[in-house]
């Protein structure tokens, strides 16, 4: 019988909120959560943001982020109570018995120190190994995690390696001290699908090889299905359902879990495009100043009115560059962009106010795309005033009308961005784009930062608005599930070239080109064993195209 | 290290030189616009027009402006600062001694204030929002809020007049030993430290706290590192650029801004020299002091810029 590694009982966690003009309040963010984890097992925590999954994960390290306090219940790691342990005890446990892999490894590494120093730091700090032993172990871990040039990889600085490599390096850092438990906090959320596939398989292998237990936090049910033994579904800080991976995926008991499962497998009928295209991109090539090679190469695309063109590809494929060309931020050196029947000036400066008005953009990070010191009313009202001269009461009425369109009430008009949820912020950004009465909206990864249910809501809103307003979209994304929901036509970009282009049904049906197949196969499916099937399929069919680290299965040493 | 980082550094140096050149033009133009007349100042209100005209010709005041500017600039580049209009002394010699005195005072103040400010900033961050932080902020802010002449007179009143611990005037002369010199400048150094401390300490605190918000600080904490190690190894290296910037700004202030303190303590430095000769309308001296102050100010800020470039790991180790 395995020993119990982690026992959390009736955990209650509170945070302090500071409502403007009122006294600080204690709010409960996790209540009555219990879980047990045996040595070498993996538990997946799943739920939308605000569900308390990261908070619970960090509580296993006795840590409360910001002003978060662990106010009730107990957390026992290897029989030791962590909830009210003195900081000296917690420091001894963190980085030795339990370690952490953050969502954004890019932000989680100190930019001014070499990777190797950071990877072995905790191991040395806790005296778990001598320095040469730790370095040797780190190099071994780099190799196991398929990092390139494992001997010298650690000599680099964080900015000198890619996001996927940093995520692996952080996994190496977490495994280096030979911990009993690793907390993975959305370790692949910030990566694109093909990179995610490689990192996910590296993590899974490392967990198995080292027989380490893990808490795996994610909002992607399909990802957690690949890696977890047990799954806990959370909502609003409370446990919705807790069971084995198989039971949650194939036989969910609660309605909320069923919604999550079906949100991950969405389907929708398609529309057939007709009429003169709103936007035509003809033979466009563009490069950044100082680069020898084009970032987008000879692209030809069309967007028929009232339809959605999805531009799909991994990071670095040139999809955002294409958006910059269309918006005039990066004038192409060859080719032209024809908008609504006339050729657009390549550079932003040469465009008329009407061009600007009719071509709007929505961004991935709704947070940073809004001025935090302006109210929703001011944010949405600004294009109304700028393009149409609406002022005062007229402007307010129009803002309320727009708020209604994005399914937010009139009461939102005086709120600040900080008072909105992620989904609400993105809705406000949509309203701001709509305020200009555009013919075309470019949506740059607008749902990537959102939880699946919230993202589904945004996608539905975009589609409804399209039906009512007849606006066209260019939908830039790496999320195939979102593409299936919204696209009418699909363009697949790979290394700046258009590798596949056509109607949705045509692009998403076989026969595939190699890259599209890799892209489609990399999207996690909600099926236990999908990861292994995909890796072996990719290995068999596409040896040259396999993503970094996904290809050769290495021999386990144990 | 790579070529592009040295290009950036070279750019800063060239920009610095250009700025010094431009400020020389500004200073010269500014002194030409000043009201008043040296000849009048020397001869007094009762001078006859003929005597004034003769003296002007003798002092070279009738030569066109641009010619005077060019010859001044060429002289400067050769180390010739000209002669004082009022007493006929060689300005370079007079300034040399006084500049050394000013630098001595500024360096003494900097050696105490810079480490003190950084340590106090660190302590503030370690005890953020607890009483040591609040006490340090209150004391340093109070001291910066009092005008420096006021601070000087308060110190003179208590420590020189009432207690007799330090001299009220900071006279130093070449015959004094190093120890005697330090004794002489105790009070002005204290005033200068109090004036620059708050700014540097607040900036250190703010820069560190800004970095403390970063995700990698959490990583360090979750690796079980102690709080001091987290600040020293993780926060400090990433906060060093803004700290160095504000330190350099204050060092520049110590050299350039000591005028008031030097006058209050009758300290034979650049500031007092400048103030004396402004009163006498001695334009060459004012110009020379101006260009030296400008050069010091620009050089120190340029050094801060270069340091920021060199401290950035992204520039130091490109991909």
From TrEMBL, chain A:
Membrane-protein topology: Peripheral membrane protein
ABC transporter domain residues: 6-261, 279-520
Keyword annotations from UniProtKB, A to Z: ATP-binding, Cell inner membrane, Cell membrane, Membrane, Nucleotide-binding, Translocase, Transport
Molecular function per GO: ATP binding; ATP hydrolysis activity
GO BP term (any one): peptide transport
Major place of residence: membrane
Gene3D superfamilies: P-loop containing nucleotide triphosphate hydrolases (3.40.50.300)
Keyword Transport carried by entry: yes
Compartments where found: Cell inner membrane
The protein's name in its UniProt record: Peptide/nickel transport system ATP-binding protein
Organism: Breoghania corrubedonensis
Automatic annotation (TrEMBL), chain B:
Positions of the ABC transmembrane type-1 domain: 99-304
Transmembrane spans: 103-127, 139-161, 181-200, 243-270, 290-311
InterPro entries in alphabetical order: BPD_transp_1_N, MetI-like, MetI-like_sf
Cellular component terms per the entry's GO annotation: plasma membrane
Predominant location: membrane
Family annotation (SUPFAM superfamilies): MetI-like
Bilayer topology term: Multi-pass membrane protein
Keyword terms, alphabetized: Cell membrane, Membrane, Transmembrane, Transmembrane helix, Transport
GO BP, sorted A to Z: transmembrane transport
Protein name, per record: Peptide/nickel transport system permease protein
Organism: Breoghania corrubedonensis
């Amino acid at each position: 019988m395995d020993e119990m590694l982690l026992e959390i009982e009736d955990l209650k966690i509170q945070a302090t909120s500071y409502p403007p003009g009122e006294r600080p309040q204690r709010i409960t963010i996790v209540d009555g959560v219990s879980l047990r984890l045996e040595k070498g097992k993996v538990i997946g925590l799943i739920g939308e943001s605000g569900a308390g999954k990261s908070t619970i994960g960090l509580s296993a390290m006795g840590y409360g982020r910001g002003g978060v306090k662990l106010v009730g219940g107990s957390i026992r790691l290897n029989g030791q109570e962590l909830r009210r342990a003195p900081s000296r005890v917690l420091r001894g446990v963190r980085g030795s018995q339990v370690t952490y892999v953050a969502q954004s490894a890019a932000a989680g590494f100190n930019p001014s120190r070499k990777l190797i120093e950071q990877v072995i730091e905790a191991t040395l700090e806790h005296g778990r190994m001598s320095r040469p032993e730790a370095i040797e172990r780190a190099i071994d871990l780099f190799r196991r995690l398929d990092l390139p040039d494992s001997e010298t990889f650690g000599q680099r600085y964080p900015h000198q390696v890619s996001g996927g490599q940093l995520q692996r390096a952080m996994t190496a850092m977490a495994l280096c001290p030979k911990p009993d438990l690793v907390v993975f906090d959305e370790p692949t959320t910030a990566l694109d699908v093909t990179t995610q596939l490689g990192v996910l398989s590296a993590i899974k292998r490392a967990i198995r090889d080292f027989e380490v237990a893990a808490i795996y936090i994610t909002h992607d049910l399909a990802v957690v299905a690949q890696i977890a033994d047990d799954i806990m579904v959370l909502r609003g800080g409370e446990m919705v359902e807790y069971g084995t991976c198989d039971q949650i995926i194939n036989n969910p008991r609660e309605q909320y879990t069923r919604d999550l499962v079906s949100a991950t497998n969405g389907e929708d009928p398609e529309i057939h495009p007709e009429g003169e295209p709103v936007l035509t991109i003809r033979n466009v090539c563009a490069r950044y100043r100082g680069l020898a090679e084009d970032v987008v190469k000879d692209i030809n695309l069309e967007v028929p009115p009232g339809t959605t063109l999805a531009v799909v590809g991994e990071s670095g494929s040139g999809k955002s560059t294409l958006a910059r060309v269309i918006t005039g931020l990066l004038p192409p050196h060859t080719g032209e962009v024809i908008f609504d029947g006339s050729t657009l000036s390549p550079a932003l400066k040469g465009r008329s106010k009407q061009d600007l008005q009719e071509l709007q953009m929505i961004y991935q990070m709704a947070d940073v795309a809004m001025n935090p010191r302006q109210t929703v009313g001011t944010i949405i009202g600004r294009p109304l005033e700028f393009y149409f001269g609406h002022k005062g009461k007229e402007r307010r009425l129009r803002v309320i009308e727009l708020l209604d369109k994005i399914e937010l009430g009139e009461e939102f008009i005086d709120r600040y961005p900080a008072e909105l949820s992620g989904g609400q912020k993105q809705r406000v950004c949509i309203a701001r784009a709509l305020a200009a009465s555009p013919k075309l909206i470019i949506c740059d990864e607008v749902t990537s930062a959102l939880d699946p249910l919230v993202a589904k809501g945004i996608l539905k809103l975009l589609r409804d608005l399209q039906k009512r307003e007849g606006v066209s979209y260019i939908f830039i994304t790496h999320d195939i599930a979102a593409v299936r929901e919204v696209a009418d036509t699909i363009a697949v970009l790979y290394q700046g070239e258009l590798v596949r282009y056509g109607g949705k049904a045509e692009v998403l049906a076989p026969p595939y080109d190699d890259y599209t197949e890799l892209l489609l196969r990399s999207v996690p499916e909600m099926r236990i064993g999908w990861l292994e099937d995909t890796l072996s399929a990719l290995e068999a069919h596409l040896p040259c195209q396999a993503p970094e680290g996904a290809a050769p299965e290495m021999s386990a040493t144990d | 290290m790579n070529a592009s980082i040295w290009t950036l550094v070279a750019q800063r140096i060239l920009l610095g030189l250009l700025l010094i050149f431009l400020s020389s033009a500004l200073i010269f133009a500014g002194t030409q616009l000043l009201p008043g007349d040296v000849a009048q100042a020397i001869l007094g209100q009762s001078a006859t027009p003929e005597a004034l005209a003769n003296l002007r010709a003798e002092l070279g005041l009738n030569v066109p402006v641009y010619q005077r500017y060019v010859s001044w600039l060429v002289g400067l580049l050769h180390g010739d600062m000209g002669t004082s209009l009022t007493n006929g002394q060689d300005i370079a010699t007079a300034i040399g001694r006084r500049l050394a005195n000013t630098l001595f005072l500024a360096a003494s103040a900097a050696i105490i204030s810079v480490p003190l400010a950084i340590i106090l900033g660190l302590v503030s961050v370690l005890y953020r929002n607890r009483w040591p932080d609040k006490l340090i902020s209150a004391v340093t802010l109070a001291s910066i809020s009092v005008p420096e002449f006021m601070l000087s007179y308060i110190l003179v009143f208590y420590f020189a007049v009432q207690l007799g611990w330090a001299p009220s005037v900071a006279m130093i002369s070449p015959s004094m030993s190093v120890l005697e010199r330090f004794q002489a400048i105790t009070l002005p150094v204290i005033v200068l430290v109090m004036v620059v401390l708050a700014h540097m300490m607040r900036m250190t605190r703010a820069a560190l706290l800004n970095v403390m918000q970063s995700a990698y600080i959490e990583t360090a904490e979750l690796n079980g590192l102690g709080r001091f190690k987290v600040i020293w190894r993780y926060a400090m290296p990433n906060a060093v650029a803004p700290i160095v910037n504000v330190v350099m700004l204050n060092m520049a202030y110590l050299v350039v801004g000591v005028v008031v303190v030097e006058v209050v303590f009758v300290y034979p430095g650049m500031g007092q020299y400048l103030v004396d000769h402004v009163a006498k309308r001695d334009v060459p001296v004012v110009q020379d002091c101006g260009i030296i102050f400008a050069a010091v100010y620009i050089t120190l800020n340029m050094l801060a810029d270069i340091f920021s470039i060199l401290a950035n790991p992204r520039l130091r180790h490109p991909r």
